[in-house]
What we know:
- Helices cover 32% and strands 42% of the residues.
- The protein is an alpha+beta fold.
- It has one domain (3-135): Nuclear Transport Factor 2, Chain: A (Roll), CATH 3.10.450.50.
Amino acid sequence: MSAAAARQLIETYYAMFNSGDREAFLDLLTEDVVHDINQGGREVGVPAFRSFLIRMDRCYREQIKGLVVLTDEAGDRAAAEFTVHGAYIDTDEGLPAASGQTYVLPAGAFFTLSDGKVARISNTYNLPEWIRQVMGVNP
Length: 139
């Protein structure tokens, strides 16, 4: 895969995320996709990723904005930096109570690409900052 094709894949990945078309989004993943969850565990496979998305869609309404994608020359690896604009609409297990709080949070992700699909994604963001925003605590 070329660097340009890798960049297009990641841009499409986030466009599908923003569109809410979960089937098109999942079609961009390898069957054995590895998902490293921010400050969490590792899940493997499309069924696990589908379950993750179901929980995310129940608890959050998010849009990715300001996307910047970087790739290696071979098109095997990519990184993305972006800002998450979201609303916390239903309480997620282990987190503060949800009441529609909004948040704006810088985030990033690292990707391994294989055969024109996403084979690994590792997300990263500042969870304490997210909690501060949804709790309404001033810095």
